[in-house]
Amino acid sequence: MAGGKETPRQKLISLMYLVLMAMLAMNVSAAVLDKFFYLDKSLKHAVDQEHISSGKLISSMADKVIERKNKPKEVKALDMARKVREGSSNLSKKIEEIRIKLAGELDEKTGKPKQMKNTDITATVMIGVKEGKNDGLGYKLEEAMDEYVNLLNTIYTDTAFTAKGKKVNEPLTTLTPSAKEDPELKNDDHQIGKDWVNVNFEGSPVIAALATLSEKESKIVEYEQKVLRHLAKMVGADDISFDKIVGMSRLKSSIVAAGTEIEGEIFVTAFSTSMTPTMKLDGRVLPIEDGMGKFKNKVSAKNYDENGFAKKVYKAEIILDDKVLKFDVDYVVSKPVIEIKSKSVSSLYKDCANILEVNVPALGSFYNPTFTLGSSSEGVVKKGSSSNTVMIIPKKPTVNLNVKNDGLDIGSEPLQVRLVPKPTIEVHYKGRPVDQKRGVEGSPRSLTIKVIPEPEFKKSLPKDANYLVTEWEAILVRGKRPVDKRTLSSATGTINFSSARAGDRILVEVKGVARKKVLGGTDPVITEKNPVLFNIPLN
Q: Is 17 helix (H, G, I), strand (E, B) or coil?
């Protein structure tokens, strides 16, 4: 079905839900699951407030119908409003019954479900025990939600409840779209062929399923209020003058990931189109649409508590004629999880070009990071080949990677740094390593110094595992007396000791090996102070 535009609040809830589902696609930690618990609580609180608002609106309609002498058309509109409210209440009761079965036993101290990570409980309760039978409670809920939307549409699109000269409303869209009906999922290969129940509950932990139910209930009350406001216009309840005006705020969620946008509304309850208030947030005048001050700000925080939350507040002000309403808009910033991927998983290598992939899944499409180290003495940071990659050349045993998103602090991650492991040095003759016990036949014309990187280091950073032989000596020794010597400056050098004879030996002293850095320059590995020696007997 075609449908009207979503309200800003509903867009926010939908965005939060998408972030929630994206995070569930990963192997999430217990801390992340805890955040789902708080998100569920926030949504439940918002839904409860909307139910209270609906009840007040119907009471106002009832008062207005009596005041206007019980006109038949207005009485019918009031009856329809009560029917809508009854349907919404019944759905909420059904959802609450399902929530109780899903949650099971709760922890007495925290109030969290003891089986919050369990996915089998969700499958059994919502999808069903037998595959293909569609006997889970999710299917009964889907049927009830479809019936409710059909009821709303018979009212919302009825010409009898449409003012003269006004266009008839477009039908409300389904609340239970299958994968192919959902524009966000129809091209997702992982969701092809799935019905609404499987899309929303397959493979979901209990705490995620509870959050999903809260998100669905929020859409139910969104539809309920849209239809109730439509009916309220029939009895003039939308232009009632109240003797008490209360300023209120409404956010998508009171918990927002740092770096994402917080969006919501501050407004006067039962606002009349004849009112022209001025609305401010932290002193900034807000644009007003449909009587509501709109705001959208990116949020950040530095001081998080042990659970990864930081409490924040906006100061709101509504100026209406001779009245000034002041109140706080409280919200909570949740610390996003920073994921760092690297070939050298356990730590970085000092003075090497370590490439890291840094992601913050909670930010989704808002992710536009910049990276710095705690101080310039910790090393060098360069932008990687893509927006989420960074090259770090550390100079200290520990470095702190700071992540910002569009200039706002996201967090800091400490990274351990280890020294580049020493390579293995070998002397090769005729393409093979020399055996220092067996020696070689005759006097070799040339020898080659081979530098073999430590395997794990070479696998992690192959471009940094390149070595250069800069100095070595070959000394012909007879007994204890040196007879001849060659000094060489490359890996392969001509020896050709013409005076050599059986029983002599060649002493090889490697004095200079350096590692070539990716960004230029060298790092000494072997020097004259710490040479590597080889004794090669001549047979």
A: helix
The set of residues, in sequence order, having a beta carbon less than 8 Å from that of 384 and lying 6+ positions away, is 355, 356, 357, 390, 391
The pLDDT value recorded for residue 382 is 87
Closest CA to 58 of 44, 73, 88, 79: 79
51, 221 contact by CB (below 8 A): yes
Strands, E assignment, 151-254: 247-251
C-alpha 509 chain-centroid distance: 55
Query: Which pLDDT value is given to residue 31?
Result: 60
**Rounded to 5 degrees, what angle do the CA atoms 305, 310, 314 make?**
155
Nearest 10 degrees: Cα torsion 185, 406, 16, 20? 70
Q: Phi/psi of residue 134, each to 5°? A: 55, 45
Question: Are the CB atoms for 418 and 349 separated by under 8 Å?
Answer: yes
Enumerate the domain spans of the chain.
1-239, 241-335, 339-418, 424-537
Q: Is the CA virtual torsion 116, 118, 119, 124 positive or negative?
A: negative
DSSP assignment, residue 48?
A: H
Alpha-carbon gap, residue 253 to 207, rounded angstroms: 17
CATH code given to domain 424-537: 2.60.40
Among all chains, which residue has been given the structure tokens 């705690």? 374
pTM above 0.70, yes or no: no
For the chain, 539 residues long, the average pLDDT of each consecutive 10-residue run is: 47 55 52 68 79 88 87 89 92 91 86 85 85 82 94 88 77 90 79 85 85 88 90 67 57 62 72 70 86 82 73 87 80 72 68 87 74 88 84 91 82 88 94 92 93 92 93 93 94 91 94 91 92 94
Phi first, then psi: what are they for 38, rounded to 5°? -70, -35
Q: Provide CATH code, domain 241-335.
A: 2.60.40.10
The Cβ-side half-sphere exposure at 49, using a 13 Å CA radius, reads 13
Rounded to 5 degrees, what angle do the CA atoms 3, 6, 8 make? 170
Give me the numbers of helices (H) and strands (E) for the chain, helices first please: 8, 26
Output the DSSP codes for 232-268: HGGGTGGGPPPSS--EEEEES-SEEETTSEEEEEEEE
